[in-house]
Amino acid sequence: MASMSALQSILYGLFASTGLYALFIGLLTIPVLQDQVIYLNRVTLTWFQDVNIPEQWGFLRNQVTPFFLTTPDGESLHTWHILPPELYRENQEALSAEPHGLALNVKERLSFKLLRDDPSSLLVLYFHGAAGTLGSGWRPPSYRAMSANAPHRIHTLVVDYRGFGSSSGYPSERGLLTDAITLAEWAMKEAEIPPSRIVIFAQSIGTAISLSLIHHMATQPEPTLFSGVVLVAPFADVESLTATYRIAGTVPLLEPVAKFSRLLAWLNTLIATKWPSKFKLADFIRRCEDMGQEHPKYDITIIHAEDDYDIPWSHSEQLFWHAANASIPHGITFEELEKEKTASRVDNHAGGWAVERRTRRGVIREEIVKYGLHDRIMSYPIVSLAVMRAFQTLT
Length: 395
Fold this sequence. Notes:
This protein has 14 helices and 12 strands. By secondary structure, it is an alpha/beta fold. The strands form 2 sheets. It has a 10-stranded mixed sheet, with helices on both faces. The chain has a two-stranded antiparallel sheet with strand order 7-8. Helix 8 packs parallel to helix 11.
C-alpha cells in the first residue's frame, strides 16, 4: 500500500510538472512575455545599487562618466564612458576635481575631451547580454579587460538598452537596433571617433544586436565598417536558441520539445522576435567581399566556452560556418569546413583551440576555450587580446 501511494505521488508530480510546463509554453505565445523571457530586462540584479555611482564596482572617482543618450524615437539610454586606467592616472587630479555622478552635459566633462581630442584614442562600443544593467555581474570586470592591453588609449562606451536599468522604453528587435545605431553615431559624430578606431564588443543577446548594427552600417549607400568585431557566447538565431537555451542556465525553454521537430517548428512560428544573427553575419561578409579596395577590410572574432550552460558553443560553430560559407563564391559545406578546421586549428591544450580563416577582404576567427561559462569569460585575457588584435589588424 505504501509503495502504491508513493507511485501515485510520483505520477501526480509528473502530471503537475507537465501541466505547468504546458502552461509555460502557452504563455510564450504572448509576444510581451516572449520578450521578457528573451531579454529579462526587468531582472536588474542591481536593485540596491545606484548605477550613477560606478565607484561601487571598484572604479576610481570619475573614471566612469554616467550620462544619457537620446534616440531618434525619443528614448533615453543610460550610458557609461569608462576611461582607461593609465590615461586616468595622467589626469587624475583634474578628473577628481570635477562634479561627481550623472553628467547632464557629457561634452563638458574632461573624460569626453580626452576621448575626442586625442587622435590616438581607441574606442570599444560594448553591447551587454540579457538581464541586469551595465553594472551587473561580470560586466564591470569585463570593462577593465577592454583596455588591459592599451591602458592609456582604449576607452569603453556601454549602454543599457531601452527598458533596461535606468533607460526608458521597452525592448524590441527594432528598438534595440535603434539603440545600437544611436550609440555608434554618437561615437562617430559627437565624439568624432572614426570607425577605423572603433571595435564592437558584444556578449550573448548583445551579439545579435551588434551583428544587426554592423549589417545595417554596411548596407547604407556609403557603407561604414568598424575596425573589428568581437562576439562572445553568441547564438545563431532565436529559433536555434529555443531548442537549447536554459533561462539563467537552469530553466529549459523549448528543450523538452526539441525532440519533436514538427512541434518545435510550429512553436517557433509563434515567436515574433527572430534575431537572425547567422544570416546577418553571412550577408555582411558577402557585401564586404564584393566591396572595392577603397573600403577597409573586416575583422570578426567569435569566442565561446565549452562549459557555457546558457548557450552551447555549437552556436558559434554555426556562426563560423555561415561566415566562412559566405566568404567564398562557391561556398563550403559544414562538413568540409570541419575537416579544414581540424587540419589548421591551433591546439591550446587546456586553453582550448583556435582557428583563423583569412579571405580576400577580411579575417574570421573562432576561439573555443574549455572554461569560462557564459559570463565569466568576458573578463578573461582571451577577450583583451581579441580586442587589441581587432584594433591592430586594420591599422
